[in-house]
């Protein structure tokens, strides 16, 4: 109950019977353990003088409790007095008992003195007897210990360390515990650790000699292991070939190389094997492993096997790093790579042997870790050094070494998939070196070509060419000798070299453990690179050479046409090698068609360019007298020479596809027309006479006659003549002096002078106007008809207004 609750209850009590209420308050004070401040406050705060009455009641209560305490003490007093009286009686009896016990003890002591003396004599004799027996027993224990220790010394002197350790173990476990309390035993025990350390040092010295020995013999071990792996591979290939022959199958070596390309090599390999046949050596024959076994046993007995394992692994890891460090010039010769591989193989062959003949010294996890570390280093080294190789033959020999290296270590249980992945990187580099080599081959072929059709005088020469290049033309076969192939000598040479490239690329795919489909894909991709990059680049460089003329360009176009047709035979050639049908879904197609088309287009463009350049050379020979009063009556000499040149060139173009020749002819005529127009409008030409215009008109007429003579078959109607339409309309305008028609019909679709630009007409008219002022060509007109002169001025003004209107509209 809270203090407020108590105060309220007490006030309620005091409001009733005062005597009874005070009794209740006292009872409450006696029974409550909580603070009584609230109860007392209610007593003192209620009524005046209430505390006096409460104090009287409290004193009465105290007196009642005192009376009750006194009654209780009076009731128990007699029992306390009786207990004290009994205790005093017992003390007297206890003193009597003490006297009796003391007397009895004295009598016993007097009676046992003689017995004690005799007993001590007996005890002394028994001790002497026991000591003698103990000495005999201890001597019997010590003598075997001394004999064993002497045996230990003899074993140490004889260098029988493993037996000495066993003796030490026996001493410690069996003999020393029996005599451990003697000092000589402690001396022996203290000497044993030193002996063990001596043994550890001696065995460790033997181990170091062993490690140095295997480091020196790693070359020979690896060479032997790789030779055995290569012999096993040759045997397996020969066995597979025999099985294929037995069952009548089409023979492919490893499903990759046709039998006829490998039979000679296999036969040579077997002959060398027979000539050099010798006893097969194993790693145990080349290296004495007893120091390792002995050292391992010694450390095992010493309980320090972990230290030995750590030391061995640490030292071998150091040797591994040394072995994996290549020579700086390793990439220069195949012997450098061979030494590198044999050392690594020798190292891991030793580790594999240790793994299988010892327990715990080398674990599979440790060898895997070591191999993964070595493999990463090997791949990095080979990737770096192979990048320096520019000789495809050296890269191919490196690949063969890597395959033998991988097969050898795979035979010992080491994973080598990453090495074969590396071979795919090296394959790309090999292809790059091949492409560089064949780029030189193609350049030499193009340099030696005479760019003229291949002449043949008899059947034998015809068959020789057909055997080199798949050419089929029934019309040529029907012709009598002598006759000519349409292509030049470079075409069969290039075709042969592409096949040789495929064979060279195929060599790298041997023994890569890849399916025929993958090999087929590799060959097609590398051939595509040869065609689209190397051959295409060589063709483009050839086409752009300054000394290559129009005749050579025509022959190049013919050559690319035949090479394009031969691409399907190259695909059949690859199919025959890999036995993968071209209809297979994932078969890569050769891109030779696009390559030769691009080269042909480049040659065509070069023909157009060179033809225009030749036209420019002839036009530069033009020597017009722009102030002549009358024309010569015949066309200019330079123009007739140019037309004759064009006629002869277009005769050569008869072997080209029709559109090429037509395009070249149209381009030439357009360029000639543009050049003549530019000659008239040249800013350095300040004046032109009417006679010069008439002479120029004669030259344009010759151009039109050439265009209408159909220099190239297949052009429709007056297509070529349209190339000179701008010149014709401009010259007609000035020759006829039909300005009224021109100005009246300007801008009309049916205008007679639709192709005459006002600016062009103004430029030429101003040059003729200047001439009239200086040479007085129009003097008679000014004298006879001044209105006509005003008309010229008017035409000039109108032309200028047309030009200004065009400029504002633009």
TrEMBL record:
Annotated Exocyst complex subunit EXOC6/Sec15 C-terminal domain residues = 419-767
InterPro entries for this protein: EXOC6/Sec15, EXOC6/Sec15_C, EXOC6/Sec15_C_dom1, EXOC6_Sec15_N, EXOC6PINT-1/Sec15/Tip20_C_dom2
Q: What cellular component terms from Gene Ontology apply here?
A: exocyst; plasma membrane
Please give the Pfam families that the UniProt record associates with this protein: EXOC6_Sec15_N, Sec15_C
Report domain Exocyst complex component EXOC6/Sec15 N-terminal positions. Answer: 57-226
Is Repeat among this UniProt entry's keywords? no
Q: Which GO terms describe its biological process?
A: Golgi to plasma membrane transport; intracellular protein transport; vesicle tethering involved in exocytosis
Please state which protein family the record places this protein in. Belongs to the SEC15 family.
UniProt-listed PANTHER family: EXOCYST COMPLEX COMPONENT 6, SEC15
Main role? Component of the exocyst complex involved in the docking of exocytic vesicles with fusion sites on the plasma membrane.
Q: What is this protein called?
A: Exocyst complex component
Please name the source species.
Leptonychotes weddellii
